[in-house]
Every structure is written in C-alpha cells, then in structure tokens.
Design a protein that fits this description.
9 helices
C-alpha cells in the first residue's frame, strides 16, 4: 500500500472535482469546494480511503500539497470564479515538517489572489492544540485567506472550536440537514446556528442538502449559502451548472461572483 500511494504522489495521479456553493439570496455562486479523487483504477480512488492511507503511512503532508496544487491549477484552467474552498487537515498545519508557503506559491503561480481561497478544516476529529492551530491559521489570514470550519456539529469540539478560531465561515454537518423538515430539534439547532453566525459576522454554508423539502425548510429558516447533491453534484467541469430548484424561483439566472 505504501508503494501504491507513493506512486500516486510521485506521478501526481490525483484529480479534482468541484461542487458549487450557491448564494441563494443573490442568485449567484459563492464558490466551489475542491474534492480530491484517486486514480479510477485504484483501490485508493475514494478520498476517505486515500487520505486515511496517507495518514497511516506518514504521507499526508505530501498528498495534501499535491491536492492543493492540482485543485488550484484546475480551478484556473476551467475559468471558475468566486472562492475556491480547499480542505486542509489540522494535523498538516501543525506538522513542523510540513513545508511552509507552498499554498501561497501555488496561488501566485496560478495568477489567483489569496482572497479567493478558503482554508476548510474538518471538525470531525479533535484538534491537537487549538492555540497552535489558531496561530498557524493567522499566517494564512495575513495573506488574505478565509478560514472555514467544516462539519460543524459532527465532532468533538463543536461551538468551543468556533469560539476559539473565529472562522469567517462555518459549514453545518449533514446530520442536522437530513430530514430537518421532519425534526423539530434539528430546526431549533439550525435556527440557533444562523442566529449565532449573524452575531459573529460569519457566513453559514449548509451542506448535504439532498431534496426539495430540506431546501425549502432551510431557506425558510434563513439559509443563504447552500451546497448539496440536490443543487449540484461534484463534477470535473462545473462551469455551467443550474440547480433544479431555479425552476421554482422563476428560472433565476446564476452568475458567478
């Protein structure tokens, strides 16, 4: 397995798919989340297995650098606009052996502006050291990157991590979205998150929306930024995506911002 993932990294054999994030208030696209895939003929094609294997074998830093470079280049090659959301592991940010400045170099080489990039951290796993992570993120913020906490509500630290890191963006975990139109507790939780975000001047992206009932309820509760299979699935080239619910909204035209 070590040889297989080492070969994937050395041959740069990963690809990127992009899933749009919609601003339903402005009828526009806020940006795209970059999602990595391994080689199609490999047992490491699925991202969860690919990254877990890299972590177990001590190659997570090398894999993440490759994935960032690939995503940034493809984002530019496709002519996508708005913000590019990059998933980055807190373990990599806190790794002293991880090369510094690589992401900024990729951004500059691609002709992008750091203000277009969002560093997205998963909340599914505990952060080893919140204070060190906060300092590491400040370096990115100084260059103009935004910070997002992914999977809010799914992990160990929850609102405590939100308070400590003060991200510009929070992404609500799919658990609280699934069947939210049938669950009064989930509705109360989502309402509280929207209200807290307004107080913290943070954007809330609701991800994992998979049907019209969930979407309609979330919009009623105050959702502005939305992501999920109901709106658009991850694609290699999402340049011309129009989510199905625009028909309900009198065929609003989406334009990238």
């Amino acid at each position: 397995m070590y040889r297989e993932i080492e070969k994937i990294i050395s041959e740069k054999a990963v690809s990127t798919v992009f899933q749009p994030i919609f601003d339903i208030q402005n009828k526009s696209i806020l940006g795209y989340e970059a999602l990595t895939r391994g080689p199609t003929n490999s047992t490491l094609h699925a991202p969860d297995k690919l990254f877990q294997c890299a972590t177990d074998l001590g190659l997570l830093s090398e894999l993440e650098i490759l994935c960032r470079d690939t995503a940034i280049k493809q984002f530019v090659n496709l002519g996508l606009e708005g913000k590019l959301f990059l998933n980055i592991s807190p373990l990599v940010l806190l790794d002293n052996a991880h090369p510094q400045g690589e992401t900024i170099k990729f951004v500059e080489q691609a002709g992008l502006n750091c203000h277009q990039l969002v560093i997205e951290l998963s909340e599914k796993h505990p952060y080893p050291n919140a204070e060190m992570l906060k300092k590491a993120l400040e370096k990115y913020r100084q260059f103009g990157f935004d910070v997002a906490i992914d999977d809010l509500g799914a992990g160990y630290s929850g609102l405590k991590m939100w308070s400590q890191l003060r991200p510009e963006i929070v992404k609500v975990d799919r658990y609280f979205v699934e069947n939210c139109h049938r669950d009064s507790f989930k509705r109360k939780f989502l309402t509280a998150i929207f209200e807290l975000a307004r107080s913290a001047s943070a954007k809330v992206i609701v991800e994992g929306i998979e049907n019209v009932e969930e979407f309609a309820l979330l919009r009623q509760l105050g959702m502005r930024y939305a992501q999920g299979y109901y709106l658009a699935k991850p694609q290699h080239n999402p340049s011309h995506i129009y989510p199905p619910w625009i028909e309900v909204d009198n065929l609003y035209q989406f334009n990238a911002i």
